[in-house]
Amino acid sequence: MAIATVNPTTGKTEMLIEPHSAAEVDERIGQAHAAAAELGRTTFEQRRAWMHAAADFLEGHAEGLGELITVEMGKPIAQSVAEVRKSVKAMRFYADHSETFLADVPLDDPARVGASAAWSVYQPLGVVLAVMPWNYPIWQVVRFAAPALMAGNAGLLKHASNVPQAAMLFDDLFERGGFPKGSFRTLLIGGGEVARVIADDRVAAVTLTGSESAGRSVAATAGDHLKKAVLELGGSDPFVVLPSADIAEAAKTAVAARVNNNGQACIAGKRFIVHTDVYEEFATEFVRRMSELVVGDPLRPETEVGPMATEQGRQDVVDLVEDARAKGATILTGGTLHDGRGWFYAPTVIADLPNDARLVQEEAFGPVASLYRASDVGDALRIANQTTFGLGSAVWTNDPSEQERFTRELDAGAVFINGMTVSYQELPFGGIKRSGFGRELAEVGQREFCNLKTVWKA
């Protein structure tokens, strides 16, 4: 079956691409395997020049690629172009810092281990498979590919099936910069074929960003074959607002956190937990701002919220909202399908959620915010930690003791104080609990796919 670009704004099929056959997949794995051997013999200086050249190419096509992203998955055009430029920045970051991140680490006192010298070295693993989602179709791939290639690994990409044009961009992006042929190869395959690729002896490791169910499947296969895996799965991030916060600024940022990328981001604020003393003030401003958002064609510069990426994704959000409504929750704004063609859903705020509502535990991957009233600081922490997820989090308070407590006690891979959770190439990214394991970005993310080798010399 052909892989399709279906425009979520219109529901129209824009392009059909034939998937790769089993023979083509085998050939591409072989190309990556051969390239990995070659990359392992290259220097940081060579790879740095190639990565900068690839970044220059990507930057030169930012506007066109931004439009492609918007057509394929529906985010507002300004956000799409910004995604490409963020990706360029990450490529340059790893080009310039990888040699330092992966430098040999000497033991200060080798005599303690009976050696004249002892040190650790970071070496590439070989071919790493990346299974990537559609919500950030350029950034998600680059944040894996740039550190992996700069470490001397080769990459294979199984991208989400609804963004095939973005996927094919990566089939030659890095070769355009000078990397050896096959250094990064796209596999146009279905999800059911991923296990076979992981099992291939030429593939050393796998990383996945996606759903909890996909993560379980990939982790199980990787475990069966004793291969390294890094997983970034779902999140239902808390956004806590306490009385000492700037309430107006918190409400403004909360809206941006919830509807960025049309509400389809793992680390977006989803559950807004507000101290009872400032609940009414925050809720009034938050609901007003959510209700005034401009929903429409994402190619228009004035649009703030575009369509959801897939029809099924919208239906999943509808099901969560209707479950909450049926169980007595209050819809403060939204909760309706947007008029016209495409997979639009009105920005929505839901309050008074009963404990048995699915939204209390499940992730709303769309422009839907859950609003909670906390009786005190301890209650806010309880609500924040009550889900099975632990990806990002945000707390708004100007009280140093509260900042310290939430930093220590929030169950999350990241805590942002008086701001919204964002991924930066300079900071480690990942979660705990059912949000996955391992880290991406920064130096620790690059080291995930390296062999940390100990060297001892008499």
Automatic annotation (TrEMBL):
Keywords assigned by UniProt, alphabetized: NADP, Oxidoreductase
Entry-linked Gene3D superfamilies: Aldehyde Dehydrogenase, Chain A, domain 1 (3.40.605.10), Aldehyde Dehydrogenase, Chain A, domain 2 (3.40.309.10)
UniProt signal peptide: none
GO molecular function, one term: aldehyde dehydrogenase [NAD(P)+] activity
Domain Aldehyde dehydrogenase: 3-455
A UniProt-annotated Pfam family: Aldedh
Superkingdom of origin: Bacteria
PROSITE patterns: ALDEHYDE_DEHYDR_CYS
Family that this chain belongs to: Belongs to the aldehyde dehydrogenase family.
Xref: PANTHER family: SUCCINATE SEMIALDEHYDE DEHYDROGENASE [NAD(P)+] SAD
The name this protein goes by in its record: Aldehyde dehydrogenase family protein
Organism whose genome encodes this protein: Gulosibacter macacae
